[in-house]
């Protein structure tokens, strides 16, 4: 399935603000009682991985226990209380854990709200469901007590802000909504810079009549009051910038899917001016020999960067250098199968394990990250994720 056919902007309906906790929304579903008892009696998990079904009728989070060796076991599912889209987000960051792993935030793109869960090991408790501030929320980013959400639809191509209380609860930030640079943006990700003064949004659709060029990356500066500036479109070095991640020194890495033809995918890196949000290229379109690179993230030590390549069903690895330059290590560092359709990728909090959501098969694949950045398979787990129907969003600790 070509990514191009999935670039259309979808519909959504609005939903009123709701802050309600219902035990039934957090109830176990679809798991045998003995599996639940095994989970209760087991030792505390080394960590957990959460994946979102994105089912249109009733969105759910599938919960996986992470063992010390990185392998996963599905132990539970909980409802978000909202609706998914039924087809994949085509964005990065639809399901996000706070850095302290105490709270999980999920975009309900079909009902235009955000669900907030308290996290205790592999157990989730729904504590809030709140209107996202726009139509089709698909990407979240945090810095300190701020959260911004990206909306991507014909009705709303914008970002909106929230404050985050110590107990995880969200409060809308007045006057924080800012439009993207184009009504046909088809955005890919929203990311805070490491110091919180800059926001970036990748735009996958070519711009028509918009300066500075056919493909852009929108940037915003963020003031002490948490409010984002008006958009400042920046020229993308490569075509169809899809997803992005920041090094801790403020250097931005961007996955470029380019045209959906063999050997077109690449990664570019940029310096970002913290005062103006202006981008300047460091490494331009470093090719990985693959097709449709869409998701990107850094290893915990930031020595390596990885892209998930949707069309070729594999993972690419790059050397990420302190000066911002990047070098391809292995275009096919992990092969997942042509029908696997890898999308969201995450790394465990201890930096040892790499996880990728496989849209095509409804699984999460696990790998150990070796000292040289190579990936050693640690198996796959399912647990009720739908295959070929848009599972979107992955989080891990």
UniProtKB/TrEMBL annotation:
<comment type="similarity">
    <text>Belongs to the cycloisomerase 2 family.</text>
</comment>
<dbReference type="Pfam" id="PF10282">
    <property type="entry name" value="Lactonase"/>
</dbReference>
<dbReference type="GO" id="GO:0017057">
    <property type="term" value="F:6-phosphogluconolactonase activity"/>
</dbReference>
<keyword id="KW-0732">Signal</keyword>
<dbReference type="GO" id="GO:0006006">
    <property type="term" value="P:glucose metabolic process"/>
</dbReference>
<dbReference type="GO" id="GO:0016853">
    <property type="term" value="F:isomerase activity"/>
</dbReference>
<keyword id="KW-0119">Carbohydrate metabolism</keyword>
<keyword id="KW-0313">Glucose metabolism</keyword>
<protein>
    <submittedName>
        <fullName>6-phosphogluconolactonase (Cycloisomerase 2 family)</fullName>
    </submittedName>
</protein>
<dbReference type="InterPro" id="IPR050282">
    <property type="entry name" value="Cycloisomerase_2"/>
</dbReference>
<dbReference type="InterPro" id="IPR015943">
    <property type="entry name" value="WD40/YVTN_repeat-like_dom_sf"/>
</dbReference>
<feature type="region of interest" description="Disordered">
    <location>
        <begin position="378"/>
        <end position="397"/>
    </location>
</feature>
<dbReference type="InterPro" id="IPR019405">
    <property type="entry name" value="Lactonase_7-beta_prop"/>
</dbReference>
<feature type="signal peptide">
    <location>
        <begin position="1"/>
        <end position="32"/>
    </location>
</feature>
């Amino acid at each position: 399935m070509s990514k191009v056919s999935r670039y259309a902007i979808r519909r959504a309906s609005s939903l009123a603000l709701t802050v309600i906790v219902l035990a039934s929304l957090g109830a176990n579903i679809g798991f045998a009682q003995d599996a639940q008892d095994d989970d209760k009696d087991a030792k505390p998990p080394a960590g957990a991985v959460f994946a979102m079904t994105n089912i249109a009728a009733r969105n759910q989070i599938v919960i996986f226990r992470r063992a010390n060796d990185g392998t996963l076991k599905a132990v539970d599912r909980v409802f978000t209380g909202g609706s998914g889209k039924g087809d994949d987000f085509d964005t990065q960051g639809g399901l996000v854990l706070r850095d302290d792993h105490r709270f999980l935030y999920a975009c309900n793109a079909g009902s235009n709200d955000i669900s907030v869960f308290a996290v205790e090991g592999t157990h989730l408790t729904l504590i809030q469901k709140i209107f996202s501030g726009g139509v089709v929320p698909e990407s979240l980013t945090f810095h300190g007590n701020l959260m911004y959400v990206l909306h991507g639809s014909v009705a709303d191509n914008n970002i909106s802000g929230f404050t985050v209380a110590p107990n995880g609860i969200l409060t809308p930030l007045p006057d924080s909504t800012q439009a993207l640079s184009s009504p046909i943006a088809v955005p890919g990700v929203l990311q805070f810079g490491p110091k919180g003064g800059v926001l970036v949004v990748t735009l996958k659709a070519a711009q028509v009549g918009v300066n500075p060029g056919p493909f852009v990356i929108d940037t915003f500066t963020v003031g002490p009051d948490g409010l984002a500036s008006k958009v400042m479109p920046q020229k993308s070095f490569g075509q169809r910038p899809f997803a992005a991640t920041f090094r801790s020194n403020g250097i931005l890495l961007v996955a470029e899917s380019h045209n959906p033809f063999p050997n077109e995918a690449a990664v570019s890196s940029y310096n970002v001016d913290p005062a103006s949000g202006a981008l300047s290229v460091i490494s331009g379109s470093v090719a990985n020999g693959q097709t449709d690179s869409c998701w990107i993230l850094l290893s915990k030590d930031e020595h390596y960067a990885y892209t998930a390549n949707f069309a070729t069903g594999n993972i690419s690895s790059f050397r990420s250098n302190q000066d911002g330059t990047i070098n391809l290590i292995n275009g096919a560092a992990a092969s997942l199968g042509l029908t696997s359709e890898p999308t969201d990728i995450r790394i465990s909090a201890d930096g040892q394990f790499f996880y990728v959501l496989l849209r095509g098969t409804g699984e999460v694949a696990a790998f150990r990250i070796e000292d040289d950045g190579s990936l050693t398979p640690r198996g796959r787990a399912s647990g009720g994720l739908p295959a070929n129907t848009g599972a979107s969003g992955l989080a891990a600790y």
